[in-house]
Every structure is written in structure tokens, then in C-alpha cells.
Amino acid sequence: MDSKPKTRNRKVTKARAAFTLDIDILSTLDDFSKITGQSKSGFVNDCIRQALPQLKQIVEFIKYAKENPNSDLTHIQAEFLKSIEQTKNSLDDLTKE
Q: What is the C-alpha separation between 70 and 47, in angstroms, rounded?
């Protein structure tokens, strides 16, 4: 993945990345893209954007656990479970709309 995207006097909001995916995942993304007209990268970007708050929180939890190996991780586990519940509730709200 390019960590420093090239700029040409404009604000860069996207960077090119390369990923290796399982064949069945790529096939499903291809089918989804063809049916919906949405690009694969757009779809993946949208999915990750929706999960970004939880992903950032997981990163912080992992950093904390690695930096504090002797600490009681019960609090982190509780916060993580709360985050999962909030995500579930937000997804449930989407299905009600």
C-alpha cells in the first residue's frame, strides 16, 4: 500500500492500495459491482468507512494491551463488547429504515 500518495497541488483524499483476496471473495465483489454499478473499491471503502470507529477502537485496545502486558484487560474487554453492541444496534437501525 502506498503510505505517501503523490500530490499535484491538490488535497489528496485517496491512495491506491493493493490487496490479495480469496477467489470467492473477489468473485462476489465482481458480481456485486456488475449488478449495482458500484466500483469494487467504492464498495470496500464504504464498508470500511462504516466500521472505521470500531476499527480505530480495536487498534487502540491492541496498542494498550501490547504496551501494558501486565494490566487487567477486563476493562478493555468490557469496552470492546460495548462497542460491538453499539455496532449491532446501528446495523439493526439500518434494517428498520
A: 35
Residues contacting 59, CB < 8 A, separation 6+: none
At residue 8, φ and ψ (nearest 5 deg) are -135, 70
Task: Please give the pLDDT value at position 71.
Answer: 78
**pTM for the whole structure:** 0.62
Angle value at C-alpha 62, between 20 and 55, nearest 5 degrees? 55
Asked if the model's pLDDT at residue 20 lies above 90, the reply is yes
Residues 89, 28, 88: CA angle, nearest 5 degrees: 5
Name the residue with higher pLDDT: 54 or 17: 17
